[in-house]
Amino acid sequence: MKVVVIGSGAAGLTAASNIRKYDEKAEITVITREEYLAYSPCAIPYVLGGEIKSFESIIMHEPEDYKKKGINVVREAEVYDIVSHENKVEYRVKEEEKEINKSVQYDYLIIATGGAPFIPPVEGINLKGVFKVRTIEDGMKIRKWAENIKNAVVIGAGAIGLETGYELKKFGLDVVVTEMLPQIFPRSLDPDMALIVQKYLEGQGVKIVLGNPVGKILGEEKVETAVVGDETLKTDMVIMATGVRPQVKLADKAGCKLGRWAVEVNEKMQTSIPNIYAVGDCVEVVDAITGQNTLSPFGTTAVRQGKVAAKNIAGKDSKFNPVLNSSVSQIGAVEIGAVGLTETAANLNGIEVVTGKIKALTRARYYPGCKPIYIKLICNSEGRILGCQIIAKETVAERVDTMAIAISKGVTCNELIGMEFSYAPPLSMVVDPFVQAAEDACEKLKNNTIE
Amino acid sequence: MKVVVIGSGAAGLTAASNIRKYDEKAEITVITREEYLAYSPCAIPYVLGGEIKSFESIIMHEPEDYKKKGINVVREAEVYDIVSHENKVEYRVKEEEKEINKSVQYDYLIIATGGAPFIPPVEGINLKGVFKVRTIEDGMKIRKWAENIKNAVVIGAGAIGLETGYELKKFGLDVVVTEMLPQIFPRSLDPDMALIVQKYLEGQGVKIVLGNPVGKILGEEKVETAVVGDETLKTDMVIMATGVRPQVKLADKAGCKLGRWAVEVNEKMQTSIPNIYAVGDCVEVVDAITGQNTLSPFGTTAVRQGKVAAKNIAGKDSKFNPVLNSSVSQIGAVEIGAVGLTETAANLNGIEVVTGKIKALTRARYYPGCKPIYIKLICNSEGRILGCQIIAKETVAERVDTMAIAISKGVTCNELIGMEFSYAPPLSMVVDPFVQAAEDACEKLKNNTIE
């Protein structure tokens, strides 16, 4: 069996490794544009701020690791066509300073072309000192540029923008993060929760400008100012953290059906062409709450999809479930997590919801080191939990995972109150913050019924 | 409505406060032996070691707090009879140096008499320098005695014994913890997991002696040696952490039916006498996995039961669910958690199980501060998760809670692999340790099928 994988992100490499796990004899080829393999793009901001010592340390595997597994990795190669009726991938690669066209046959093809940064078409985008944050090379360039400057403007206040902004501030720059929408974390948090994080960031000296898109970037040879709404921000660097778009061009060329957002796949991660699978940021998936198609550009989704595709190709039955899009981010000392539907998204989708909201503590109140925790539960009119947002200085990722299981198993607020939460004074409250939030929601649900 | 509560632990006080929440007019009386109210007994070891500054700080509420809520608390009173056919509680209380017998009528009675330390009937148990660890007074006595001595022996290597042993070592004593059974944490951990904690404790200088009960305690006026198996341990103090027994005498006197272990209650927390409820450490409950009656001597159980009893008495329908007995403990830098069935208990109950076991990390491996985490999943032959044990230096309590929900909702290992776990390098691994453990279990299940 010949398997070709296009792309060396988490989805592509997981798929390749898992095919090897199930099939010792498969001929596996990974073709990638990149020079560095198997690194963690989510870690780039933390190298900038010095939390992680070097870019080298976020590379999880070297090409040799794959060679040992019998996986042939072709790096710095550009796939320019997929000829699906001939089961053939055509690519261009440099050998001894020359560009050579090559092709490879497949029985199964896995498209894992990922996402590319979306760069809004504004004036000055090509000036020196304008960067994106996607690859390890981007990170290296940003770090180098940051060494001799004073100011940075980050466009986009999602996780990557805020993490990068905070870390550059920590590195010593004066930082402004701007966002087109009127709140930070516009996709994962509701405005009330976003405000808690915003205040923390402002307290740390990161300036936030909301409700305006970047207008233009000005400068002679290099960036000098960024115009955002009414504000003209003097700056030595602009970082575009304006989101990522699925890269679907190759899948389209191959004749794979595209959906509203990205490559369409079934629950086996199979495209409309039976021997072509697609995984990772380039595909669209089903939202577990709304039932509508959506994107899920997360490393964990990529890994799960890579495993599912590999299993199916290896003849084992495996399905990828609809997503809740669990996410977590660390900004300075604060952890921000979300899973499922926000109140904002519920309103947009016409889903009537009630929320439970509390400020509690991560440990017994008398225990030194206990920290405030903010939880917002979103549930439907029957009390079923549809989403959750959590902000605290510890334990957020694990709490998001707890809610991911609760939401996917249809747990109600009332049921949650009756559930067991472990307790020891150094580690938790005797009445868990989730239970307190669920009790708040139940109280409101009860009041709703009386109305 | 007149409600009398006997006992001022978490169960009794939660019941009293919740009745007030639902019924502004109820006459509520709490009768307790204790002087101090509403403190956290689980916190006592941490005061001994100095983690928590004072015993005063673990008192959550003062008598005045209850008075303000219109709850009459009678302290330092001994209930000596319940005359259930007259709906009357008889108690003895000291007033102006005199013991006076009093009685109080009830419409509903809540028995929350808790548990009493089980002290094995060995020679020397009444010598000076022998202590139990149950009440805040016990804690105060231990701390005072510990000030001018060098050695301590703790009998019993459950959570309380080990926490106390470690904290006394931290306080500056030479400490030996002894256990009758051949492992520490004999109820919540399997031997393989217990050994990880044992090695940590030994590394911290706490001596552990296993597989022998305490034989006798010797000394002239005060403790001088403890004989445990072949070993004669020279010591200035002996702490009996040999478990807790439900206090059922009053319930029995009232005519409430007793079960195998403690007071029998239905899922409303009602005893065999309809207007008498019982909650907390004095009742027995149903084990969610085996379906058999068991004990659940945990603060969180007590709180949930107190709420359930209060709701039912207030005319609202509420049920207490079968238990998984989630528990977590902090010993030095290590957190130890468990939920559901152990492999040992499965074997005792004739339940065939497969385990998934891994050592992973709490954060991305390149992220500074990531720590080892040990997870053991216990699942039945269909892959359904029945229990989990976790040891790490962070995030254990929240992970136990995640598994509590997964187990109570019947999640299988295979299902767990497909579930979402949030990821950010500073906070988690891209393939969550739970997923790694579940994959290990699935691998074994698959192999079992082939056999």
Automatic annotation (TrEMBL), chains A, B:
SUPFAM superfamilies: FAD/NAD(P)-binding domain, FAD/NAD-linked reductases, dimerisation (C-terminal) domain. Keywords: FAD, Flavoprotein, Oxidoreductase. It is an enzyme of class 1 (oxidoreductase). Residues 334-428 form the Pyridine nucleotide-disulphide oxidoreductase dimerisation domain. It comes from the Archaea. Its cofactor is FAD. GO terms for molecular function: CoA-disulfide reductase (NADPH) activity. Its EC number is 1.8.1.14. The keyword Transport does not apply. The keyword Flavoprotein applies. InterPro entries: FAD-bd_OxRdtase, FAD/NAD-bd_sf, FAD/NAD-binding_dom, FAD/NAD-linked_Rdtase_dimer_sf, Pyr_nucl-diS_OxRdtase_dimer. Signal peptide: none annotated. It holds the Pfam family Pyr_redox_dim. Residues 1-290 form the FAD/NAD(P)-binding domain. Belongs to the class-III pyridine nucleotide-disulfide oxidoreductase family. This is CoA-disulfide reductase. The lineage of its organism: Archaea, Methanobacteriati, Methanobacteriota, Methanomada group, Methanobacteria.
